[in-house]
Each structure stands twice: as C-alpha cells, then as structure tokens.
Write the structure tokens for this entry.
Amino acid sequence: MSHSPGTLSLDIVVPVYNEQATLDSSIRRLHAYLTSQIEQTWRLTIANNASTDATASLADALAAELAHVHAVHLAEKGRGRALKQVWGASPAEVLVYLDEDLSTDLAALPPLVAPLLSGHSDLAIGTRLGRSARVTRGGKREFISRSYNLLLRRTMAVSFSDAQCGFKAIRREVAERLLPLVEDDAWFFDTELLILAERAGMRIHEIPVDWVDDPHSSVDIVSTAREDLKGMLRVGTNIARGRIPLESVYAELGRRPFDPPRPPSFFGQVVRFGVVGVLSTAAYALLYLALSVFVPAQAANFAALLITTIANTWANRRFTFGVRGRVGAVRHQFQGLIVFGIAWAMTSGSLAVLHAAAPQASARLQLLVLCLANLAATFVRFVLLRLWVFRSRRRTPDAAGRMPGPHPHPHPHPIVFEGSQHAVSVTGQTTPHDSSLPETTRTAERQEVNGS
C-alpha cells in the first residue's frame, strides 16, 4: 500500500449515529483491510452526526490512535447531511460511503472504486439485487427492498437496480456538481443522488455484493419507506417542472448514451396517470360542490369537468407521457377536449339516469354517482390519451442504421430533459426538438451485473 505525498485517491466516509457498541470494532476492521488491501492513498473519515452517546469520544480516540483516520462531528442528525458536508469538503479523487455495520463484504471495495479512479464511470454502487449477489436477510426486508426498487425503476424511469445499499462511491467533480441539487438530508439522500445522476447522463457502475443483514439495525423500515415515497414524489415533481438544472449538468459532465431516450414504461404511465387522476377527481369534486350552490347540477358538472380536463391534459402531457415544449400543445388540448366530450357524456348520462330514478336525490348522492362515473371515464381517457393523443410516432432506421428526422446536430438522438424545450447534444450545444414526441430523460448507461 502506498501513502506517498500528493493527491488523495480515496476518502472512505462512515456516517455514524449512536454506534458506541460497534464503532471501535468496525473501524478497526475497516482500517486493517484498507491498510493491507488498498494500494491507493486513502483516508478513513468517521462522520458523527449528532450522536448522544459515547460515539463522539470513541471516534476521536480512534482518530488519535489509527493512521489516516479522521473524525468529523456534526451538530445535526442525518446521514445525507453528513455525507454532503464531508464529501463536499474532501480533496480526494473518489468519495466513498460505507455503512458502519459493514454488512457489505469489503472485498467489493476495490472493484467499486476502480472504474471511478480510471475515469470510466461517474458513480459506483453495490447491488444486493444482482444475479450474482449473495444476500442474507429476512423475508420482510427482502420484500420491501425489492418492492421499493421496482417501484423506483418503474415510476422514475431509472435503470440502477439497488438504490439503498450502503456501499457507494462518486468522483469528486461529479459530487461537486450534484450535491447542491440534492435536497434530502436523511435516508433518501442516496436515492435522490442516483436519480439526478442518471437523469443528468452520468454513468453508474454496479457491483454485485455479498451482504449480511445486521439483526440489530435501528432503522425504522416503515418510516423510512414513507419518507422515501415522499421523496420520490418531490423529485419527480421538481424534474417535471424543470426546477432542477439537469441540462447544464449534462452539458458539463454527461456522457453520450448508447440507446436513444425512451418514453416512460407502461407501468410507469399507469402509476403517473393514476396520481394525476386522483388529484383531478378531488379537484373536480371540490369544484362541483362549489359551483352546484350557484348553478344547476348539469351546468356545475360541465364547468367542473371542463376545468379539470384542461388541467388533466396538461399534467398528463408533461408528467405521464413525457411530452415537453409548446409544439403540439394546442392540438393536444383540442384532442383532450374531444376526450372530455366523451367523459362528459358518460357523467352526464349517469346524472340523467339518477334524476330519472330519484328526482329528489341529494347533492351528496349526485356527487357520489358522478365520481363513480368519472372514475369509469378515467379508464377510457387513459386509453385514448395513450393510443391517440400522445401516441409515440415511431421512426424506422435506414439501411445504415440511422434514424431519420429533423436533427440538425450530428448526434442523432439529442438528450431531452423534462421541463425543457431544447435538446442538449453531446458537445453541450442546444438544438430545438420536436416536443410532440414523448421522450424521457433516462440517459445513464445500464451496467450489466455479471459478477466479474
């Protein structure tokens, strides 16, 4: 192992909170491995985030005794907050994060950092869900982990397989660009960082790991899962609204994808459409109740449905089917109004049937019938939006394998970011794109997990 003066290659950060029972043994074990197995220059940083037990004094004692071990103390709790502060201040070429319990076999550390040190990849993560990974943990945690990662891939249009494994690394220049964009300071930090990285064209390398669950883990699975779902909704909304400057990150650090961008998967479209539909139904109900006080039921139904349909078409255009820009927006709204006409006929018909069967029906009963009819019309609306209004216009490659179309830039598949009206080429230049075509922002290359 070399510790020659000069550039620090690795900074291995271990966030800790109230780990007095295991900190000493874990850090000594990790230090022994780094000393004997890692040839690059390294530093081991204990990031104590507001522990209330003896963790802080233990960390200081280990830093004083063991070479190349440092201790950093934060006044506020949060794994994400600790990593932001330590990574953000580190001079190392590659920044690493390991869980304190060392559940992941340390033999995976060299292949984790190798593609980052060589410049081949931008981030590297351990995956417990790869075919050659060997994992020992209970059925409950296994089910929750697989379900969460499946939901994440389908709804956020990402390709990495395991967002939650506490075994990750990132190149410093990439961290400097992405960390200011990550809002979460707790457990969702990892997931948010990976989503933004892939959406910004970073290459994420995956390493199958051997992993043994810590039976004494203090992580609240239910609470963490709830916060993760909130984080997914927040990040997805911010990306859809163009609040995150992914274009500039891609122009500076992004890599050319091997595959052209693809529209959201069918499952992802269904989930997003469902979210938009629930919000639209709630808005419709509130509008109908407010308007029915001043106008007849049919007029209130028409006005409430028209207003929510315009908003629904806009939301589905941006969020569900990934269509960006103004091109085709008027046509899409016109087609959406036709779909509205069909939905209005269904809801009005249900209201007419109710009035015929029960002329003195209360406003609440009318609302119930209309909501049920509106839910039925939702299915019809999804089918028409997907197969007619926002259908993908597929192009056929020519004899040379090139995709025809109006692409003035030499790169045939410009990268399109949600919330943008331009495509960013591999040179960082922008060029207008046909935003009537459904496109997504999946730009990171999927690394095949083969155990090599």
Summary: Residues 394-452 have pLDDT under 50 and may be disordered.
